[in-house]
Automatic annotation (TrEMBL):
Protein name (database record): Sigma-E factor negative regulatory protein RseC
InterPro entries assigned to the protein according to its UniProt record, in alphabetical order: RseC (IPR026268), SigmaE_reg_RseC_MucC (IPR007359)
Taxonomy, superkingdom: Bacteria
Transmembrane segments: 68-87, 99-116
Pfam families given in the database record: RseC_MucC
Keywords: Membrane, Transmembrane, Transmembrane helix
Amino acid sequence: MVQKAVVKKILNPTQAEIEVQRQSACGHDCSKCGGCGTPTERIKATAVNSVDAQVGDIVTVEGSSKQILGMAAIVYAIPLILFFVFYGICALLHVSEGFSILAGVVGFALGIWVAIRRNHRMKTSGEIVFTIIKKG
């Protein structure tokens, strides 16, 4: 995933703190759109500074596709999988359908909780790696 970012701080000779404007779900740059009126979110992250970018530079950063797809799998797939697993276990045990649905909802909520915890852990440990690939 390639995005534009602004260098906010130089952390050391090989790393910089960047600020990336979160892209919309429609895939367009919200800074150039007045369509939906949704406020855009800015995300701060650490990036490998391989091009000697300085504070204030607008840079192009690339995120690891493997990490992004892994997070997408956690956020979208795990809650659904846990819903069906919890529902299926109750159905196999011949529990009432209402209780099976309730168990599925609990599984879904557990999946969302896992995704939130994983996201928080990735943010605090700096596991999400961006690389500055060019200035401008």
